[in-house]
Amino acid sequence: MRYSVLLSSLALGLALLVSAGCFRGPSGSEDRRSRIEQKAETAKGLIRQRVQSGEDVSGVLATMQAAAGRFDKGDVLRGEALLDQALAKLRSGESLRHEFSEPVTDLYSDPQPVTVLGYDASKGIMEPFITRDGQYLLFNNGNAAHNTDGKKHDPDLHHSQRVNDHTFQYLGEIRGANSNMVDGAPSLDQNNRLFFISPRAYQKKHSTIHAGIFKNGEVTNVSLVRGDISPNKPGWLNMDAEISADGKTLYYTVNQWDTDFNLPKTSDLHVAQWVGDRFKRLDDSDKIFRNVNTEELEYAPSLSADQLELSFTRSRINIKDGRFRGMISRILVASRRSLNEPFGEPQWIKAITGLVEGPTFTPDKKSLYYHKKEAGTFRLYRVRRMK
């Protein structure tokens, strides 16, 4: 953005912030109004300083605008909390640039770490899935050499039981599921059919989605999922999938793989329906995800029990001059009014920051869990629904 545009946006945001009809009722005391006006003026001065030094402050402006929106709805507490977030960023010295084009949402906020008691956290927790009764957490470990024996381990499937929103009790590996290759991205329907991703049969079948019957920490009758969901050609695969609560609909990715960097070149979301003894890709799959799939990577889909809300990961990989230069990711949410409609425009959950992936809803949608990379290890986090 040019300097003049930034100042115009700032002026508009601050005008909304301090003068929109936001101090109605007993919660809008004059002391609170004065405090918020003072914070807004402080933010204004700090933003002017950063702009004058040539910085793009579009990211912090987005937070200010979200705060204005909360004030406009009379939510003074949440509005002030967002304003405090903006001030914290301004004072931290971190980049204030808005990296992404999606609209932002504060539907989920208050990120907090989650502990799995009895599990070696140095192994990492990735691809979490909360079961449809809300009582269990399924996940796979990471694949980096950060566990206690100092060795690199391929991801395996694990399970744990809920203690409270921020604590689970580790129950062990899922017996019968793990191989000597990557086993991950678990999901479970209401009929205890466990779905997961593994390349164990890829050389022969070019398919990666497996399923079996899960009971008492063990999965039996594991086999490849039949249907037209896999590309069935070298260099292409499905790296993520989630089964619907009723077991009749499968949401999955189709990926072209970059073997040089061991990363996906492409990733889009698709949907298939159970017909007879296999899954058949819906004819309107592209239509359903027309507002979701882009030239970036969309993966790790999570669906609410009614399949009307979708959360997923969108990432951008930077490869320049033949070298991997890193990636940026974010977790988004989208909704629709009926199963016959496409999902609407996704919104970026602004409270979820850093290298984040793999969201999963709780049955009541009051919590969203995900993994985040910290100091080289993936950790489990939770955000709570704000409205």
In terms of topology, how is this protein built?
Blueprint: H1 3-19, H2 30-52, H3 58-72, H4 76-92, E1 104-105, E2 108-113, E3 115-117, E4 126-130, E5 136-140, E6 157-164, E7 167-173, E8 184-188, E9 193-197, H5 202-205, E10 209-215, E11 218-224, E12 236-237, E13 241-243, E14 249-258, E15 263-275, E16 278-281, H6 285-288, E17 297-303, E18 309-320, E19 323-335, E20 347-349, E21 356-361, E22 367-374, E23 377-385
Parallel strand pairs: 1-20, 3-7
Antiparallel strand pairs: 2-23, 4-5, 5-6, 6-7, 8-9, 9-10, 10-11, 12-14, 13-14, 14-15, 15-16, 17-18, 18-19, 19-20, 21-22, 22-23
Helix pairs in contact: 1-2, 1-3, 2-4, 3-4
Tell me what you see in this structure.
The structure is a single chain. Helix content is 21%, strand content 39%. The chain is of the alpha+beta class and 387 residues long. It folds into two domains: 3-98; 108-385, Glycosyl hydrolase domain, family 43 (Tachylectin-2, Chain A). The strands form five sheets. Strands 1-20-19-18-17 form a five-stranded mixed sheet. A hairpin with a 2-residue loop joins strand 6 and strand 7 (167-173). The longest helix is centred in the first third of the chain and has 23 residues, at 30-52. Mean pLDDT is 86; it is low at 1-27.
In short:
With 387 residues, the protein is of the alpha+beta class. Helix content is 21%, strand content 39%.
Report strand order across the widest sheet: 1-20-19-18-17
Q: What is the strand content?
A: 35-45%
The helical percent reads 10-25%
Shape label: globular
Radius of gyration (CA) equals: 22 Å
Low-confidence stretches: 1-27
The CATH superfamily label of the largest domain reads: Glycosyl hydrolase domain, family 43
Indicate the CATH architecture of the largest domain.
5 Propeller
Work out the count of structural domains. 2
Helix count, DSSP H or I runs of 4 or more residues: 6
According to CATH, what is the class of the largest domain?
Mainly Beta
Number of beta strands = 23
Which structural class do you get from the secondary structure elements?
alpha+beta
Q: In angstroms, what separates the terminal alpha carbons?
A: 32 Å
CATH topology of the largest domain: Tachylectin-2, Chain A
Biggest beta-sheet profile:
5 strands, mixed
Note the run of SSEs as H and E. Answer: HHHHEEEEEEEEEHEEEEEEEHEEEEEEE
